[in-house]
């Protein structure tokens, strides 16, 4: 009888313990869910990436740069459903930003452009890191968004500056060419060389021989 009572007591304690654990687990899940909802709302409010305005000449040059187009498309598509959607978006952006190093248009394939791409990539990959931690670093994620916008603006500004400098060099070259042509046009033309006079002259269709003063008259 004592053994039976002891077993019943153990079973009862086990059931109570399980019930308490389940209640604690549900409470923890509820807290995590509420926290994720708050994080989602905060990140959703701050997740605003700017598409920088571009000089038409720059836009024309990069129109066939597929890596740039794919990166900007992903950047402008804002997640909506959950914090998980933001996490997946950050992973995709992290890959797309590294791809920007591929097939850079020749006019922009310069150290100053590549350095800005790497700085932008560092910011985007940090965003990916902080939002995909088990405990999301919400404030760091929010802080990185305007920093990414600044780096993106710096990159497009550098491309714009390269195009403007190339146009200035072209205009200076055209001015030098026009100046050179102007100088050539001011040169004094050389007079035509004198033609030798013919020994005989024609008059009314006939030939008049020269009179020889030494010839005696007949």
UniProtKB/TrEMBL annotation:
Superkingdom, according to UniProt? Bacteria
Where is the segment annotated Disordered?
174-218
* Compositional bias segments (type: Polar residues): 196-205
Protein name per the record: Lipoprotein
Species of origin reads: Flavobacterium gossypii
Classification lineage: Bacteria, Pseudomonadati, Bacteroidota, Flavobacteriia, Flavobacteriales
